[in-house]
Amino acid sequence: MAETVLRAALASAGLDGQVIVDSAGTGDWHIGHQMNSGARAALARRRYDGSAHRARQFEASWLPRRDLILAMDSRNLADLRRMAGPAERDRIRLFGEVGDVAGLGGAADRDIPDPYGGDAAEFGYVLDLLTGAAPVIAARLAQLLEPSASEPPV
Prior knowledge:
Elements: H1 2-12, H2 37-45, E1 69-71, H3 74-83, H4 86-89, E2 92-94, H5 95-98, H6 120-145
Parallel strand pairs: 1-2
Helix pairs in contact: 1-6, 2-6
């Protein structure tokens, strides 16, 4: 769900094509499978399309090629940081930290819970967190991508 929502927020911020977003889990349980039906249904109720998503497992070889890696919760954050070298660990952050879910009334620990196996309300709650945090992340990325004021215009 996070990939779909973040892509939409980036497009709304005018960053479509400037930021590459992909999604992968730290476990191998669902590789190749479609997004969970509860997640697809929650997205569809809000006019997002998650049908193209296929589960993948994160590979350590991707670390040097990613500028920012967003983990959904503290456990995944720790797993990803264990895969990383010292120079890469600071580029692995919590989605909820970068997206300021605590400031949006979300979980104080900034974890985005996994609603897998939950009901529609649980998927809706997670989607609320994601749709609140994604525009914050998009705005922060837009600031990083702005040309420096000291650079001459192209």
